[in-house]
């Protein structure tokens, strides 16, 4: 039997903590306003569900993806009450006894998040001892003939139990067979994932709960999300009562967005107030309290926390692995099915120099040439008639639509970004700033330049040019942090827009990369540099992050590739060759570096209209490599190397330790890069510049 007084004490403590958070940081217009990037992420996610519904109708949606989406897909074709019933089936009343001869007493709510594991609150189950003898009562519903008793399954904390007070959650295994013989698999489970784009402030938030230990109730009226907090909580207006602890919170599309854990009372100091302003005291009914709002724990925060749990037995490891395997975002799988992979660029052929910038009607930029100033010349245009391109694309898409493609981490808000302290040893490599003269060109929100964070790197976008102004990446070539499976491990390349900023600020395939067949999608943050991590998933997601169009710049294949091929005999791509130089240098000794790079977006760069409007393409690119060096006393110090790469010649031989080597001809002072690129490097980098006096 549950110790009700202790449960009430824990519940009250959680309630007071929520009230103190509210008092310290109440919702404000700044925290409740939906930013353009949040709206874009939500719209992209909603679009994915539309695509999933279309794929389901075509019979092309795999069963495992459909199961992850659950009642969400039915939202488009069935009345909300049918979807609600499907969403509520895995929600259980937590009861204090499992004896079939005794009427069960309900005191909380929980819901299945995997075939064998239920999620509820820490204040419901703080330790395994509090679980023993209790059960999960499913389908305790109102029916035409009365309230159904439902099915009761006993909890099994010996198989799996985790709880945490800070996020107020408890995970507990449920025995696979009910006390009356039914199978747990019959109630299904609610798929959860770490996406933070399922709901926005101001939208309806729904709950399925067992208030006062009674039958299931659907709270779908007068419910509104107030705030999504960065500390892992969300606030909302929804009717709840005692016994609702551990309820599932849903978006209007029936995706699970939160775990309800507390109602927020009005307080004076440490005293909870009644509606009449008097002090509330334990033992009095809750319905007299002056409630302000409700608070839940964000599912995205819980999924992240679950990934850090450490099982202690083979049984708990199996159940935890099973749970985590179901937390991937189904919209990522939909993207693979709904977006055919772009075919590889056709083999480039140098155009006739006499056709420079001469458009031929019916061709996709037939004979267009990009002249990069200086010794480097970039040619664009395949001379392939436009009428021939769609058929080739369709053929490739039909054959390759179901092949493995890059898998992207859907949790954009959880990406850690570039770490200035990555080199350790009390050495910092700060991010660059933007010069005052170029500040107005940058993409901003609320007047501030937006720094987009990815796995291991960050970047800032030049809105005028639709390309990045700079990027900064942490690189580690330690073999233990990298996969030995090669590119096949990641799947086919797939470039995507970053949903956090409007697509109109990202240069995409139709603008230049598709029609200009000799132009590569040139990474600024190199795929190989970024594809490292402590787990296969981290490596995979870090690799995929480099395939956002925000990290892409137009580069001619003879410049971008270290081995351009037979089209340019004797040419070794300068950009690709230099990237290989850095990689080889970091594979022995100190394997870490910080690399800051970008295109030089010169206002006088040439432009060409490829059918979607004028596009300016960069003529010059820059890199700053920051590494540490050890003196004779073993002390580490910072060394920086700046390079301006615009020439075609490239060398093949590299030094053992990091040094410019034969690339010295391209090395320039960081101050020179600042003058040309409009980025400002921190004084700590300028002082470490090995070429400052040149």
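^ structure tokens above, recovered residues below v
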């Amino acid at each position: 039997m549950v110790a009700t007084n202790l449960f009430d004490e824990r519940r009250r403590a959680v309630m007071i903590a929520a009230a103190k958070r509210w008092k310290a940081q109440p919702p404000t217009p700044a925290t409740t306003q939906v930013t353009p990037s949040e709206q874009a992420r939500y719209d992209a996610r909603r679009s994915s569900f539309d695509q999933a519904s279309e794929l389901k109708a075509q019979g092309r949606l795999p069963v495992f993806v459909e199961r992850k989406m659950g009642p969400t897909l039915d939202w488009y074709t069935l009345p909300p009450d049918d979807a609600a019933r499907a969403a509520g089936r895995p929600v259980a009343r937590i009861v204090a006894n499992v004896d079939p001869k005794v009427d069960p007493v309900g005191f909380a709510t929980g819901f299945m998040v995997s075939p064998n594991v239920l999620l509820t609150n820490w204040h419901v189950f703080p330790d395994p001892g509090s679980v023993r003898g209790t059960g999960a009562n499913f389908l305790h519903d109102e029916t035409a003939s009365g309230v159904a008793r439902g099915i009761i399954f006993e909890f099994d904390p010996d198989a799996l139990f985790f709880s945490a007070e800070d996020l107020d959650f408890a995970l507990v295994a449920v025995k696979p067979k009910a006390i009356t013989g039914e199978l747990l698999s019959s109630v299904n489970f609610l798929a959860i994932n770490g996406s933070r784009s399922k709901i926005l402030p101001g939208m309806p938030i729904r709950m399925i709960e067992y208030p006062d230990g009674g039958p299931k109730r659907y709270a779908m009226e007068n419910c509104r999300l107030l705030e999504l907090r960065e500390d892992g909580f969300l606030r909302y207006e929804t009717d709840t009562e005692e016994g609702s602890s551990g309820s599932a919170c849903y978006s209007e599309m029936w995706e699970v967005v939160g775990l309800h854990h507390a109602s927020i009372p009005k307080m004076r100091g440490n005293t909870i107030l009644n509606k009449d302003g008097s002090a509330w005291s334990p033992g009095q009914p809750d319905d007299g309290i002056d409630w302000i709002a409700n608070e839940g724990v964000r599912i995205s925060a819980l999924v992240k926390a679950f990934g850090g749990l450490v099982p202690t037995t083979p049984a708990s490891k199996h159940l935890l692995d099973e749970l985590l395997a179901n937390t991937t975002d189904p919209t990522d799988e939909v993207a693979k099915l709904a977006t055919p992979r772009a075919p590889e660029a056709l083999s480039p052929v140098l155009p006739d120099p006499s056709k420079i910038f001469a458009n031929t009607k019916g061709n996709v930029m037939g004979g267009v040439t990009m002249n990069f100033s200086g010794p480097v010349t970039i040619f664009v245009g395949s001379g392939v008639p436009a009428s021939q391109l769609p058929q080739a694309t369709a053929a490739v898409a039909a054959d390759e639509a179901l092949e493995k493609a890059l898998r992207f981490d859907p949790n954009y808000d959880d990406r850690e970004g570039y770490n200035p302290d990555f080199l350790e040893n009390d050495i910092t490599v700060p991010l660059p700033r933007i010069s005052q003269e170029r500040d107005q060109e940058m993409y901003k929100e609320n007047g501030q330049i937006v720094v987009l964070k990815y796995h291991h790197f960050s970047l800032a976008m030049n809105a005028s040019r639709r390309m990045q102004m700079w990027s900064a990446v942490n690189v580690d070539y330690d073999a233990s942090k990298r996969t030995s499976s090669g590119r096949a491990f990641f799947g086919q390349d797939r470039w995507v827009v970053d949903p956090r900023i409007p697509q109109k600020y990202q240069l995409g395939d139709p603008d230049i990369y598709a029609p200009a067949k000799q132009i590569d999608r040139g990474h600024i943050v190199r795929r190989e540099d970024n594809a490292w991590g402590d787990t296969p998933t981290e490596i995979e997601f870090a690799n995929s992050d480099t395939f956002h169009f925000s990290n892409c710049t137009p580069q001619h294949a003879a410049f971008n590739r270290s081995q351009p091929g037979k089209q340019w005999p004797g040419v070794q791509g300068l950009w690709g060759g230099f990237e290989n130089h850095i990689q080889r240098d970091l594979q022995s000794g100190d394997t870490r570096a910080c690399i800051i790079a970008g295109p030089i977006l010169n206002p006088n760069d040439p432009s060409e209209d490829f059918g979607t409007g004028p596009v300016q393409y960069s003529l010059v690119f820059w890199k700053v490599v920051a590494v540490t060096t050890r003196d004779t006393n073993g002390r580490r110090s910072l060394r920086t190397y700046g390079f301006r790469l615009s020439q075609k010649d490239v060398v093949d031989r590299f030094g053992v330790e990091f040094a410019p080597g034969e690339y010295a001809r391209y090395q320039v002072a960081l101050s020179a890069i600042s003058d040309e690129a409009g980025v400002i490097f921190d004084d700590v980098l300028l002082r470490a510049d090995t070429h400052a006096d040149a």
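The first strand starts at residue 91 and ends at 95.
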